[in-house]
Amino acid sequence: MRKVTRKMWAILLSGTMVFTVSACSNQKDVPNENLAGNEKEHKKFVNLFGPMEKSDPDADNTARTAHEQTVRMAEEELGVYMEYRTYTAEDYQDKTYDDVTLDRARNNMDDLYLLNPDTIQALGREGRLADLSGLDIAKNLREVVRTANTVDGKLVAIPQEVVAYGLFVNKDMFDKYKLKLPNTPEEFLECCKTFKEKGIETPIGANRWWLECFVLAQGYADMYNGGDTEEEVAALNSGEAKLSDYMRPGFEFLKELMDQGYIDAEKAYVSEAIEGEKEDFLGQKTPIVMAYWGAANTDTAYGDPDFDMQVIGFPSHRGQMPIISMSGYGVVPEAENYDDAMEVLDIMLSDEALQEYSQVNQVISPSKNVEVDCIDALKPLNDRINENIYVLGSNASMNVEQWGNICIIVRELLNGSSVDECMAQFDKLQEESLDK
Question: Which residues neighbour 79 within 8 Å (Cβ) at sequence distance 6 or greater?
């Protein structure tokens, strides 16, 4: 289960810079004068562990360009040199990026780390990440960022972008059959029923990674948009509330989608993200798929459809619900270059740097002060996020990791498990967390 979760995190973060760039490319022989100058001229170093190296300044990769521009800002202002310590599968063989990151952080091998959500959660609980609430960016953070990255009252990580997931819909097909875009699970089912009656064989194009968004939207709509989030999380962590009670409505909803033939469960179970459903969606054979924000901007995904595409939130009783997750930068308290690392982050995560990063990558900024125009297709999702309406796909303060575990148990449902059997797995996960 652990290995599946790790691979899933790579898919989860495919919309972010960390997984957009290639960790396997070798740029070690390429001069980097324009990025760092002569290393010998710098007296101070800050070591960053991540899945990417500094690139050729002429490389055609906007994600790298945006990230490295923020690094360059810090280098020039502080007179430091950012040393990239890089993960590659070749170097670490069977170990995943997260496995290696945990090992390095626990042994204080680097200063800065680019962390996935479950790694933030683990290191934060162990007290191995510094509190970043003193950085200038901290007072400007969107509440969703603060909530996702707070462990035991400490802000332990901050991202350069917020990744939002939504339903990508063919608005032309909805208009053809006089259907309104759905807000609630009931409305969504009615739309699927109409499409099926009109000859659309499979209304929803699905893969084995992102169906959990339906579960998250229904399970946590109230927690993040009306209740007391901290109180509800505390109740789950203590066992006072049952995780399975939150999960059941979403699993029952998915089971109905499968039983009615609105989702091809067998195909979804083996399909990789986007690859399994892209052809049918762009070919207008299926009207609904799910993906991350960046897929709407990318020609290799859904960035150039021959129809009116809109990206909306997942159905919930509170309406269309964006699902949000994010990676983040963290600093280990015992870092050799701790003070310099904190100063570097202050510049890389300044509003000035985030404005440039977000503008180039067309992504949602963690700073509430940074706004970037998005394409028309993304405006419905963006409007909800700007209204502070969302559900977190990952929350570092929860004892039971969410995204990966829900994804795995959804796959069990796709493979024939009953809803009750799936709920038993959640009960077991919660019991195990209480024993720790």
Answer: 42, 43, 44
